[in-house]
Write a structure and sequence with these properties.
eight-stranded mixed beta sheet; globular; alpha/beta; 15 helices; binds 6-O-phosphono-beta-D-glucopyranose; NADP binding; six-stranded parallel beta sheet; oxidoreductase
Length: 495
């Protein structure tokens, strides 16, 4: 990688994603010695800026958002000259000729051909326009060294996702297309694969014989913020379940791949999606719950309800919470429910996967001795706590036989004392390396849409009458509790 010159062209260079995630990630990769000897980071946008204006702007962004804190003078002086800006009207063919010239000039300076990565950090309606214009300008011809990175949302439904895949497929080969799901870049998410496939002890338990049910819960305290324009046309199911949560489910449920290669891993993940039980209007009613937040108090501050957010439609029926019970119809998972829930303005921000094991077949201790009858649980905490804990029963110290639930814990911070890289660092490095393992393949995206479509359709036709139905700082609507309670469970939350 060091000797491979690389150009990043960031469409949406003046946007939020670049400021918060991409620029800090490239800088951190640079600090840690991962960037090639020759690289350029070209931001593009409609705003007219000079290279220098953009460098000043990026310096501010990195200072504000980088996990490594304020830029360090010496390293920044050597990093900053690699940042450029190209004002661009993505509709205009001339723009793309300018990119071509700029890339050629850099290659001449470096005396070597460059890998070029086009990063589309823009609204999805621009994806086709940019891809087609890149092709027209002859910038996509060399499949060996051109890559395109696409941010979600990847389609709005199954039909639009297929259409986008078709269009991209006419211009790029699949090996050039990197569809980002940033959850896959998270250190703790990658570790689930290490945990499952680099340890023999879990595999005999990892199936319907020992596991009673699985919960995947991604709760957020934040509201919709300034993303209402996007979010109101999306909602929690499209925004989180179709992609991030189903990807987590795939990693938990997948069969062991033959090797840790992109195609093997993605084949096994798509197998899971294909095996997932499809919904009917009746099962949507029984197994899917939606919610929308009302106003409330969070950490001493009053926060508005979703319909009262600035610019909101006061009658919006967009869900800000979704909980769904899924089944994976294969040998490993037959009969094991997977409960997924996500929502905004909830009591706590935490992404946690809970594997609930079955109870002991016969309890030799009297029920009064046990604090809880649920003996074993594996809790994979993705964020903010980064840990894996196995809950077991143990004897409480004392002369009598009393049992307690205790945790056997692997905690990242305690074990490694170093900060984990941000998801975008891992993902941008993988794009440079040409490793697609952590990216979404066309068929994965389509299968996931296919699975959620009946829910979307049902919800569209049955507009909810009772929104808002949960208050800010709660754990979501009562129906979500009922969804698991009717099966005899409750949502697990970290203490
Ligand atoms: C994004 C969603 O993909 O993921 C947001 O569009 C959500 O609505 C975010 O807040 C959550 O990501 P993270 O990394 O903060 O858990």
């Amino acid at each position: 990688l060091k000797s491979q010159p690389t150009v990043f062209v960031i469409f949406g260079g003046t946007g939020d994603l670049n400021a918060r995630k991409l620029a800090p990630a490239l800088y951190n990769l640079y600090l840690e010695g991962w960037m090639p000897d020759h690289f350029a980071f070209i931001g593009t946008g409609r705003t007219k800026l000079t290279d220098n204006d953009f460098r000043v702007r990026v310096t501010g962004d990195v200072n504000k958002f980088s996990r490594s804190g304020q830029v360090k003078d010496e390293q920044w002086q050597s990093f900053a000259p690699n940042i450029y800006y190209q004002p661009a009207d993505v509709q205009d063919a001339e723009t793309y000729k300018e990119f071509g010239k700029k890339i050629k000039a850099l290659e001449k300076e470096w005396k070597a051909p460059a890998n070029v990565i086009y990063y589309l950090a823009v609204a999805p309606n621009f994806f086709p326009i940019i891809a087609e214009n890149l092709a027209k300008a002859g910038l996509t011809e060399d499949a060996g060294c051109t890559r395109i990175v696409i941010e979600k949302p990847f389609g709005h439904d199954l039909a639009s996702a297929k259409e986008l895949n078709l269009l991209l497929g006419r211009i790029f080969q699949e090996k050039q297309i990197y569809r980002i799901d940033h959850y896959l870049g998270k250190e703790t998410v990658q570790n689930i694969m290490a945990f499952r496939f680099a340890n023999a002890i879990m595999e005999p338990l990892w199936n319907r014989n020992s596991i009673e049910h699985v919960q995947i819960s991604v709760t957020e305290q934040l509201g919709v913020g300034d993303r209402l324009g996007y979010y109101d046309g999306s909602g929690a199911l499209r925004d989180m379940i179709q992609n991030h949560l189903l990807q987590l489910l795939c990693i938990v449920a997948m069969e062991p791949p033959v090797s840790f290669s992109a195609e093997e891993v993605r084949n096994r993940k798509v197998d899971v999606l294909r095996a997932m039980r499809r919904f009917t209007p009746d099962t949507v009613r029984e197994q899917a719950v939606r919610g929308q937040y009302a106003s409330g108090w969070m950490e001493g501050q009053q926060v508005p309800g979703y319909r009262e957010e600035p610019g909101a439609n006061p009658h919006s029926n967009t869900e800000t919470f979704a909980a769904v019970k899924f089944f994976v119809d294969n040998w490993r998972w037959q009969g094991v429910p997977f409960y997924l829930r996500t929502g905004k303005r909830l009591h706590r921000s935490a992404s946690v996967i809970t594997i609930q094991f079955k109870d002991v077949p016969h309890l030799i201790f009297s029920p009064e001795t046990a604090e809880t009858m649920r003996q074993n649980r594996l809790v994979i905490s993705i964020q903010p706590e980064m840990s894996i804990r196995l809950q077991v029963q143990a004897k409480r110290p004392g002369v009598d036989m009393m049992l307690n639930t205790v945790d056997m814990v692997f905690d990242y911070k305690g074990t490694y004392q170093s900060e984990a890289p941000e998801a975008y660092e891992t993902l941008l490095l993988d794009v440079m390396l040409g490793d697609q393992t952590l990216f979404m393949r066309a068929d994965q995206v389509e299968e996931a849409w296919d699975l959620v479509m009946p829910i979307l359709t049902s919800w569209q036709t049955r507009t909810s009458q009772n929104f808002p139905n949960y208050s800010a700082d709660s754990w979501g609507p009562e129906d979500a509790e009922a969804l698991v309670a009717k099966d005899g469970f409750h949502w697990f939350t970290l203490p």
